[in-house]
Amino acid sequence: MSEKTCAACDCALDETAIRVTIGSHVVEACCEECAEKLREASAKGST
Ligand SMILES: [Zn+2]
After folding, report:
1. How many A from CA of 4 to the centre of ligand 1?
2. What's the predicted TM-score (pTM) here?
3. For the chain, which residues make up each domain, given as ranges?
4. Which of 6, 17, 40, 41 could form a disulfide with 28 if both were Cys (CB 3.0 to 4.6 A apart)?
5. How far is 7 from 19, CA to CA, in rounded Å?
6. What is the mean pLDDT of the chain?
């Protein structure tokens, strides 16, 4: 289970994955658009 998926859309990640820090942990997104969604969700305070 070494394959990672985008935290926003669940598609497979490759070496271009973008790291997004959410609170105290780091998730990875497939593209800037997904990264932005994760940041927005985090900013809204939804745990
Ligand atoms: Zn994505």
Report:
1. 11
2. 0.79
3. 1-47
4. 17
5. 10
6. 90
